[in-house]
Amino acid sequence: MAQINVTQVLGPVSEIVRQCPTTTLIQAYIAAVREFCNKTRILKTSITGVTVADTAQYNLGDDASNEVIGIRAMSIQGDGTNWTPVTDRSQTLWDANASTDEPEFYNYLPHAAFLLGPTPNAVYNLDVTAVLQPKLGVVSFEESLLVDWSEAFKAGALHRLLRIKGEPWSDPGESNAQLILFTAQLNYGKSAEAAGHNAGSAATERNGGPNARLRGRIGPI
Questions:
Q1: Which residues of the chain have pLDDT under 70?
Q2: pLDDT for res 207
Q3: Exposed / middle / buried, residue 210 (Cβ in 10 Å: 0-12, 13-18, 19+)
Q4: Per residue, what are the HEC states of 19-44?
Q5: Residues 6+ apart with CB under 8 A from 42
Q6: Distance separating alpha carbons of residues 128 and 144, to the nearest angstrom
């Protein structure tokens, strides 16, 4: 998906915190996007790769814009045709004496790595739905996030900027008001993600398609 430079969306924020340096505006806006993605788990991508026989630990690659903060789901192509889910399970619950075989479980390792159990006994195709957030210091983020969450990012940025003491634009009371708006959007985002972005209220197990693309690929560690 396309990235958008944060300077293109700063207008509604900068008109409220006049005299605020552009660098400070950018940092506050990206911080809001990062927090939103971290707490809602809403930004995801599909990462494909293959296992290596007798190797249990793998990494999910790297990207200039986004970093992996979790795994939403994983599937394995065990027989060359059918894809089946791999279950998220703590390594402490695995059979430590299990022989190498087709993996049934994965255990996420912060950050951007995972273990497979049993240890693969052959080459298998993997498809991992990874959870992302923008990296610190970036000046762009996934444009698709603006469709639903532009007001959340605005409120999150304003909350941060208005609470800075001693500046011409400081306003602690309005900062708290913006925090309330941002928190409400966070809760809405969590609910939307849990419901698979369906109109109904029930949670779903549907993973959905990727809305960001990570350039790295799964590799053994």
A1: 1, 197-217
A2: 43
A3: middle
A4: CCCHHHHHHHHHHHHHHHHHHHCCCE
A5: 36, 145, 149, 189, 192, 193
A6: 20
Cis before residue 118, ω within 30 degrees of 0? yes
Per DSSP bridges, beta strands 105-109 and 87-88 are parallel
Distances (CA, A) of 40 to 12, 35, 106, 145: 23, 8, 22, 12
Rounded CA gap, 157 and 150, in Å?
11
Q: If you ran DSSP here, which 8-state letter would residue 174 be given?
A: H
* Strand, coil or helix: 127: strand
The residue assigned the tokens 């985002």 is 189
The residue whose two tokens read 């634009």 is 169
CA gyration radius, the chain: 20
How far apart CA 100 and CA 122 sit, in angstroms, is 9
CA angle 79, 83, 84 (to 5 degrees): 100
**Apex 164 CA angle, 162 and 165, nearest 5:** 115
For the entire predicted model, the pTM comes to 0.87
With a CB cutoff of 8 Å and minimum separation 6, the contacts of 74 are 85, 86, 88, 106, 114, 126, 127, 128, 129
pLDDT in tens, 138-186: 999 999 999 999 999 999 999 999 999 999 999 999 999 999 999 999 9
DSSP label of 135? P
